[in-house]
Amino acid sequence: MNEASSGAPWRITYIGHATVLIEGGGVRILTDPVLRYRIAHLRRRPSPLLAQWQERIDVVLISHLHYDHLDLPSLRKLGQATRLVAPVGAGALLRRHGFTQVEEMRVGERTVVRGVPIAATPAVHNGARGPLGPVAECLGYIIGGGAMPGVYFPGDTDLFPEMAQMAGRVDVALMPVWGWGPTLGVGHMDPYRAAQAGQLIAPQIAIPIHWGTLYPLAIHHLTKAFLIDPPRLFREFMLRLAPQVEVRILQPGDHCEI
Predict the structure, then answer these.
(1) For 75-111, what is each residue's pLDDT tens digit?
(2) C-alpha 56: how far from its chain's center?
(3) Which residues pair with 11 in a beta bridge?
(4) What is the distance between the alpha carbons of residues 133 and 247, in angstroms, rounded to a whole number?
(5) SS3 215
(6) Which residues contact 237 (CB under 8 A, 6 or more apart)?
């Protein structure tokens, strides 16, 4: 039995937006890190950003190139020698900014981090970085599986039928249920579509992410519902569509063990 497959519980910390710290068997995995309080016109709702979440990271999983998922200043906080796993097409951008341990993946490919397997999965989303930036694939990832929990991190994606093929492989699904504004663009799931995805994937536990963290400057004075309601609505829809799935709502900064 390798170190990562020991019987100790794994810890999931919802840092905010699509940033999640996954810890188990001495392995620390960080997804789409946004570790600052401002990105362009977006602000972070008051919530902790603890230094301990940024230490001893074994690998960073990057789902796609959008600025709220691939944030170069946040990656620099982790160190330019940190191992980065990213979609094909992202490597040149990352290396140009000084990152030295970049591994590009395509859908269906696998890698291993200190005994923990990581598989790249499809994502239905636009992979362009701004109007003039590079274009890369969009990925999700299944972390672990087999003798350890299987954790699904979709990145940004819309619902797609092939999610049903993940059933039986995923114990914990980190389900994106909203975004950073009062409306959603294409390539995202709202609470109902996220619940439909949860019905297809059939995990034991679903944790809503991609909500309650970032907002456009000043808009939260007009409406705050989009910062609060999505996970509650997701849980209500899951109770209708897949009542056997346990929904755990974590506020940004909270954690749970699995």
Answers:
(1) 999 999 999 999 999 999 999 999 999 999 999 999 9
(2) 19
(3) 23, 257
(4) 37
(5) strand
(6) 191, 192, 194, 195, 196
Give the torsion through C-alpha atoms of 65, 67, 72, 75, to 10 deg.
-80
Give the pTM: 0.94
- Give the type of residue at 123: A
Q: Provide the 10 A C-beta neighbour count for residue 217.
A: 11
168-204 pLDDT, tens per residue?
Answer: 999 999 999 999 989 898 889 999 999 999 999 999 9
CA end-to-end span of the chain, whole Å?
A: 19
Residue-range domains of the chain with CATH: 3-257 (3.60.15.10)
Tokens 């499809």 belong to which residue? 122
Burial class for 130, CB neighbours closer than 10 Å (0-12, 13-18, 19+): exposed
- The separation between CA 219 and the C-alpha centre of its own chain, rounded to angstroms, equals 24
Question: Left if phi > 0, otherwise alpha if psi is -120 to 50, otherwise beta: which for 232?
Answer: alpha
d(CA 4, CA 116): 6
